[in-house]
Structures are given as structure tokens and as C-alpha cells.
Amino acid sequence: MVAVQQPDRIGDYTIISQLGKGSMGIVYEGQPADGGDTVAIKVFYPDPALSKEETRNLLDRFEREGNSLSRIRQDNVVKVLEAGTDGEREFIVMEKLEGYNLKELLELGTRFTLSETIEIILQLLAGLSACHNGGIVHRDIKPANLIRSSAGEVKLTDFGIARVVTDQTLTREGTIVGTPNYMSPEQIRGEEVDARSDIFSAGAMMYELLTGRKPFDGPDMTAIMYNVTNVHPPSPRFYNGALPDEIESIVFKALAKKPDERYETAESFAGVLRKLEQDLHYRDDTEAVLNALPSAPAVDAINNLPSSGAGARQATGSAWAGLQNTPPVGGTGSSSIAPTGGIIPGTVYCIDCGFANQADEKLCTRCMRPLLKRHEVLQMNSKQARKMRGFSSGDKFFMTCLSILMAGCAILIIWLFFRHMI
Q1: 196 and 108 in one domain?
Q2: CA-CA distance, 372 to 338, in Å (whole number)?
Q3: How confident is the model at residue 249 (pLDDT cuts 50, 70, 90)?
Q4: Average pLDDT, the chain
Q5: Quick check: 249 and 259 in contact, CB under 8 A?
Q6: How many domains are there within the chain?
Q7: CATH of the domain at 165
Q8: What angle do CA 339, 341, 345 make, to 5 degrees?
Q9: DSSP 296
Q10: Which of 131, 111, 97, 76 is nearest to 242 (CA)?
């Protein structure tokens, strides 16, 4: 996008500063004429390098966002106050949100407890329920589109690719829109999508909040899209051993490859989470389970923090200090499980689908493939090492014999030469 001079006014709002920019335009902070609270004004400024068709498509998305949001009045969905035109500029006026999006928090190394994760997902599902009941499928549920305030309130934003269910002109098959890490399999295939596609995306987000890892990550977009459509991620308990058993079935039901096997509505998904939260309060280890954190974030996430983010780096450092000082707590069974997570003793995780199996199982109970135990890996390694050591000894013997033979031939040649001279 080329540089755009900041306007003094847009509509009835005085422009104070620029808050950010994206693919469709620039977001400004504005002051209403009546002196009320400041607002966020998104102005449509397409890149001049785009073709007319691309610009038209972006404008359609921009207008669709304004129309979609203006129909929703729910606490967990960003509020649209006005949508209009100022000269040749189209704009949307929204409430100004304070806080960080979840993508920013995750990149800073923030980790969420089970209790915090449930609360975030419940708020997301409440917003999605209002959207779905209004006939709108968001289609781009991801951490970057969820703003979390310091008070813990979550707001769903960015309806630029939302689909109005009754508008058949916006449901062409073969069109892929969204973020691959969180897209449903049917969305990746360019098929018709409904509310259950957002359920899948919410499940992918929940998995990431519980584990600190994306469920279908890969080295490139092709690999990610393949993983979404074909691969079952490891159990969340693989990364956080203190999570309750029930969390696995809840997350995997939301991440089912077939829409018919997922939760039918956001309300049903939320109902299961509320029941889990209620049931956990009757356990002996309630506090430990609800405060369970995934394993520590990658070191690169700390090292790659922006140099200007001294405060964020300090906050992350405090989180690390808290993690290192956290004592282990009693988990289920006879073993002690630290709230920082880890592999559960006596459990074998399938290398094909990541499912948690009992140590005495020979086949994975989910994919029915042979389980490779730790001692078997060690035995294979030892056997391979012995085999290689055998080859090494044979090579040494062969080279020794060859050296003796060559030395003998050299001595024989020298002897014959001098004998002939005599």
C-alpha cells in the first residue's frame, strides 16, 4: 500500500492518529463531534497496484464486514457504530478495543491455564452463537481476530470474509478463504461451509491455547493444508499432562474431519465446556487441573521478541520465573504431574496419530498401528550400533590384510630388481 496522507476528518469524526493498516485499508482513531469516547475508523484504501477486479473484491469484503457487524449486538462481537461514505472514501466506525489480540500474546510466550482457555473459548462461542443465529458464518476464526482486554473480556473482530448464509452469490464452490492453520477441511477443499466450519476453527484455537502449539502446523502452506484434511494431531495431554482426560474427546470432537461428527452448534460446544468446568470443581485436584499450563514455549519465541517490546519481554521473563518456581502437584494416579505439563508416566503415544495408550498395549487403540515403545527404540539403536561395529571390525581386518599384501608385493619387486642387477 502506498503512503496515504492522514485526513483531518472523516464524516463527523476528527482523526487523532493512525492505529494500523491491513490489506483493505487503514484504521484511525477518531473523536466524535459530540466529544464522546474515541472510536476506531476503518477506511477503505486499496493498493493501487491491484487490478480493478481485485479492488472490487476487496471492496465487496469491506462492505460485507460493515453489513455483517451492523446486524450483531453481542458483548463478545466488536460493535459497529456506523458505516458510510465520505466523498470517495468508504468507512466503518467501530468501538475502539483496548488490549492485545491472542496471536500477539502467544507470540510473546504467553501461556494460558485450562481455566483461562475455557473462559476464552466460552466467550468466543457466545459471539459465534450470536453470529450463527443471525445467519453469518465468520470463516476466519483465529487468534489474530480475538482481542482480549486486561479484564479478560474477549471480542471477535474482522468479518471481512464472513458469509451471509442466505446470499447464494457468495458461496461459490472452489473459493478458498481463511487462514490454513485454522480452516476446516471442507473450507480448504473449497466446498460449501456452514456454522460447523467455525466450530472446527474454534477447536483448533482451543488446542493451541491448551498446548502452545498449532494442531496442524507444517513447514509450508501445502503441508498445513494436507495436515488439516488428513492428519490427527497428538492429544493435548501429550503437551500438558495435567489436563483432564475429558479434554481430549472434547477437542477432537470439535476437530472432527467430517462436519456431521462435530458439535452441531456453538451452544452445544459451550454446554460441554461448562459441564466439564462444573465437574472439575468436584475433584480433589481441582486447583491444579484448572491452573495447568502447557509445556514451556520455544526459546525462539522469547529471543524473537521485538527490541521495542521491553515491557513485554519483562512480563515474559516474570512468567518464566513463575514457571521455574512452580512446585509439582499431585496428578491422577500414583505419579506426580507438574502443572507445566509433560509426558504422563506409563503412557505410550502413537507416533502416527499421537493418541495416548496404556504402556502394555501393542497396537494404538485409535489407528490400530503398532506402538513403538521406548525400550524397543533403544534395542533397535543398540542392534544397529552393534551391526555397524561389526562392519567396522571387518573393514579394519580387510584393510590390514590388504596393507600386508601390498607391502609384500613391494618387497618382492624390490628383491627381484636387485637380484637382476647382481
Answers
A1: yes
A2: 25
A3: very high
A4: 76
A5: no
A6: 3
A7: 1.10.510.10
A8: 110
A9: P
A10: 111
Q: Count other Cβ atoms within 10 Å, centred on residue 280.
A: 19
Domain match, 171 and 285 both: yes
Same domain, yes or no: 91 and 189 = no
Query: Domain containing 79: what range?
Result: 9-95
The letter for the amino acid at 96 is K
The grid coordinates of residue 353 equal 496419530
Q: Which residues are catalytic?
A: 140
Q: Alpha carbon of 378 to those of 236, 362, 370, 390, 404: distances in Å? A: 26, 17, 16, 18, 39
Strand partners, 13: 10, 32
Q: Are residues 260 and 126 in the same domain?
A: yes
CB-based contact 149:167 (threshold 8 Å): no
Selected residue with higher pLDDT from 6 and 3: 6
Task: Return the CATH number at 29.
Answer: 3.30.200.20
Grid coordinates representing 163?
458469509
The residue type at 263:
Y
Residue 311's identity, in one-letter code, is: G
**How many angstroms separate the CA atoms of 56 and 418, rounded?**
97
* Domain co-membership, 88 together with 222: no
Cα separation values, 268 from 256, 290, 311, 330, Å: 15, 21, 40, 32
Please give the Cα distance from 189 to 44 (Å, whole number): 30
Task: Indicate if 146 and 167 belong to the same structural domain.
Answer: yes
Lowest mean pLDDT among 118-132, 135-149, 317-331: 317-331
For residue 125, give Cα distances in angstroms to 162, 202, 252, 397. 16, 8, 16, 71
Give dist(CA 333, CA 358) in Å, integer.
Answer: 13
Q: Which of 60, 80, 95 is the last residue of a domain?
A: 95
- Quick one: 85 and 198 in the same domain? no
- Asked if residue 313 lies in contact with residue 301, where contact means CB atoms within 8 angstroms, the answer is no
For 33-80, how does the pLDDT look when each residue is reduced to its tens digit (9 = 90+)?
Answer: 888 889 888 888 766 777 778 778 777 777 776 777 777 889 999 888
Q: Does 152 have pLDDT greater than 80?
A: yes
With respect to residue 223, please indicate whether it lies within any of the assigned structural domains: yes
| Mean pLDDT in residue range 258-282 | 94
pLDDT of res. 6 = 82
Residues 248 and 144 grouped into a single domain: yes
Q: Which of 39, 72, 95 is the last residue of a domain?
A: 95
